[in-house]
Amino acid sequence: MKKITLTVILLGLLCMPFNSHAQKPTLQNQSLQSPSGDIRCASDAYNAMMLSENPRMMGSDDFETEINIKIQEILNSPNRGGGPIRLPVVVHVVHNGEGVGVGSNISDLQVLSQIDVLNEDYRKIPGSRGFGAGVDTNIEFFLAKEDPYCNPTTGIVRYLRSSLPNGGADIDGDIKPKTIWDPSRYLNMWVVQLGGGLLGYATFPGGDPNVDGVVMGYQYFGSNDAPGVNLGGAYNLGRTTTHEVGHYLGLFHTFQGCGAPGDSVNDTPPQAQPNYGCPAVPPDTCPGGDDDLIENYMDYSDDVCMDMFTAGQNVRMQAVLAGPRSSLANSTVPDTDLPQMADDGSVHIWCIEGGGCDGVTATVRVGNFGTSNLTSATINYNVNGGANEVLNWTGNLAPGQSELVDIAGISGTGGNDTLNVSIVIANSDMRACNNSDSDTFVGGSANSFGTTQVHLELITDDFSNETTWEFRDENNTLIASGGPYNGTTDDNTTFNESFDVVANMCYAFTIFDAYGDGICCGFGNGSYQLTTDDDTVIASGGNFGSSETTVIAVDALSVDEFFLNDNVSIFPNPVNSELNIKLGNANNLPDSFEVYNVLGQSVLQKSIAGDADLSVNTSGFSNGVYFIKIAKGDASLTLRFIKR
Fold it and tell me: Is residue 548 annotated as part of the catalytic site, yes or no?
């Protein structure tokens, strides 16, 4: 490994990935507005955009088929009921620098009031606003007491928005990936400042796990009923979050139209459009049916009017918790405070950036969760379980504080590698489970090749519309990309591509699968292979998850390789005036050229210092046959041309 450098930086460090993706279209432009101009919920528009990249998520026929099987299993089960399903929640408060309790940096009391409202509404607690005509869903919510890295937590985490990548401008692209906790174990909620009158939105089940959760405008999170909480307007009782969590657990809006399938729940009346306000007489927007359920949490009524889920909605949520969200339903995250320890050092890989041929920089968070100050620690790290390197850290962390430290120049194999880090403190560490961490990265210069092109052979699987790929240089410039392919005509089809590369440059090829199951081997036998000009295999695969990246270092061609595979040619031939030397690798020039006539006499010779020297002026030559000898080191290539 290369020499390390130690740098202490702010918690809001920007760690940017090798690949970047465009921001999604604006939700405010695609969502229903209320008569007052508010957008109660953008989940429909949001998930419609996600569906193209996650074609089997909720909203697809495949999802409905699978969830209906689960619903029937629940309805036919003789052991329905039992204890409540308890879901651990983390609330990410993303603020604009205000003090706690001011503006977007909402108070702990406001967060706690929202958790109370969720339990009142989902458990139909007597005496609460949630005690309506609906059912007790047997679903409960609590703030997590342990974070994903085995550290104590209150379940409320605060971030300065401007310190997040790109200033936190894009919630899905910048905020969520940097802050999300394992969505298979936690219900992630982000409380932020939203624009355009938007109140909130949520992910449907089966979508991208990297953005999974609920997003809420800070003015609509929590309840004005709670002491110390002051929220105004018609949406001040926490029912927007109840509504969004309903989407997260698999419910559509009740106003899905008058025809089948509607909201896919049998006991909610057909409804053509949302209801706003609090109508004294419930309308019947699908004449001939029952009145609209304006009290239902999945309509757009004012908070004060909402107080029910139906039995059918409950069974659908239970099916989601037994199916695509079963890992969350079975999460073992504790709901009681972890014991305090006198000495408790922790380490967590905050991010890994770079990914070029010169290695990566890992930023690790050294934390103190003990009751004593932490002043020194030893950080051990290795790649793929190899020999440990050591970084000695010194500082002064009070209880609950943390610090970010850079480890630069970490080299891998050039493929998918694993960085392992661990921490040792001077005193006996009383909580061992937070003393180590691992994360994958792509970096190193092991994959080095002398070639003028990288060739891709891609064989798609049964779902070619899920497959995309990118080829980028070390500056993150997109050289080429492909997909998604046509799911009707391009399944199980071979595609061939070639990418021009230059010497002393680093490249990354990344293949993506929108569903997260690679291209082999569950649904067809797709594969990909990268090769050089001489058919040397750079990388191959197909059995991966959401993506797989290979880093390729391109070396300058050796003298022996320089003239192979038509790397050097001349044009036009025959020639009238300017003869051009063409190179397959434009950054790797020959040393010189010399022109001979048919008698073997030298008529022109020249050293090559730049691209301009690759043009040969033949206007003074007599018509006839000539030979040009192009030299590189001890090797040379002689080509014949005709002057007219």
Answer: no
